[in-house]
Specification:
This protein starts with a strand and ends in a 9-residue tail after the last strand. It contains 3 helices and 6 strands, in the order ββαβαβαββ. Strand 3, helix 2 and strand 4 form a beta-alpha-beta unit. It is α+β, with helices and mostly antiparallel strands and 122 residues long. It has one domain: Rossmann fold. Helix 1 runs parallel beside helix 2.
């Protein structure tokens, strides 16, 4: 069973079976992305573990102008090596986002500004 959750609100956004022998969790999620982004247009960040770091799923997420964060551990030497090779050869670029402090209460959360993309809600 694949569950898509919104942790802060403790809300299940989607739930699908992965019993099909030719499917795995990333493939199931990829098949349901369009419907999820249609139902939740403010969905902007997808997180997952190393299982969700495959190129087909990440390429599909890029089509929806969505950010993604996947965890890569050192115990996956092939994936880690490929990541280090890719990032080690990347040109240094300015950050994709900057934090801007809001005026007002010292407890006000910062606003994240992403150049060329819609702003993240506070």
């Amino acid at each position: 069973m694949l569950n898509v959750l919104m942790h802060d609100l403790k809300l299940v956004l989607g739930q699908w079976s992965v019993n099909d022998e030719k499917s795995n969790e990333p493939a199931v999620l990829r098949r349901h992305l369009a419907k999820q982004f249609e139902r939740f247009p403010l969905l902007q960040l997808i997180t997952g573990d190393a299982m969700f770091a495959g190129r087909p799923l990440l390429a599909a997420l890029l089509e929806f102008d969505c950010d993604y964060l996947v965890q890569i551990k050192g115990n996956q030497p092939d994936v880690l090596d490929a990541l280090q090779q890719c990032l080690g050869q990347a040109d240094e670029r300015p950050p994709a986002a900057e934090t801007v402090k809001k005026r007002g209460s010292p407890r006000s959360p910062p606003t994240v500004v992403r150049p060329g993309r819609r702003p993240l809600p506070s």
